[in-house]
Amino acid sequence: MGINPLDMTWGEDAPPVIARIANMAAGILGLDIRVKASEVISYGDYVGMGYGKTTQEGMEAVRIVAETEGILLDPVYTGKAMSGLIDHIKQGKVKAGETVIFLHTGGFPALFAYSGEFNLGNKVKERKVSR
After folding, report:
1. Based on the structure, what is the number of domains in the chain?
2. Which backbone phi and psi does 83 adopt, to 5 degrees?
3. 21 in a domain, yes or no?
4. Residue 97 is assigned to a structural domain of this protein
5. Domain CATH number, residue 21
6. What single string gives the DSSP state of each residue in 5-74?
7. Of the spans 3-7, 51-55, 68-72, which averages the highest pLDDT?
8. Domain range enclosing 109
9. Is residue 53 part of a domain?
10. How confident is the model at residue 119 (pLDDT cuts 50, 70, 90)?
11. Where does the record place the Tryptophan synthase beta chain-like PALP domain (predicted)?
């Protein structure tokens, strides 16, 4: 399953394209696996106004994961993907006890480009470090 952050309407064309790319990547990595188009599930419901534009849910996902796990997501790609995963959990599409692997593909530098959208204001607190 994947959360697509791009504002594309691939419809039925998405699974074969994604399967082809996945199989090419597997070949490059020397993995002996094949992905069938029928195994691909891609959701485009979390794009918002498009790629490069943040969503409130994506920004909230970035905050939650940073605060709870210490993992930095970017607000354009991995933040939207995590917001999709969170939504799927809330909707019961991901059941309690199921194993979920979230593949973090990077994007840390984008945090700097979108820093103004985090609207931190006086939410940043000084923390004392004990030695």
Report:
1. 1
2. -65, -35
3. yes
4. yes
5. 3.40.50.1100
6. -S----GGGHHHHHHHHHHHHHHHTT------GGG--EE-TT-TT-TT---HHHHHHHHHHHHHH-----
7. 68-72
8. 2-119
9. yes
10. low
11. 30-106
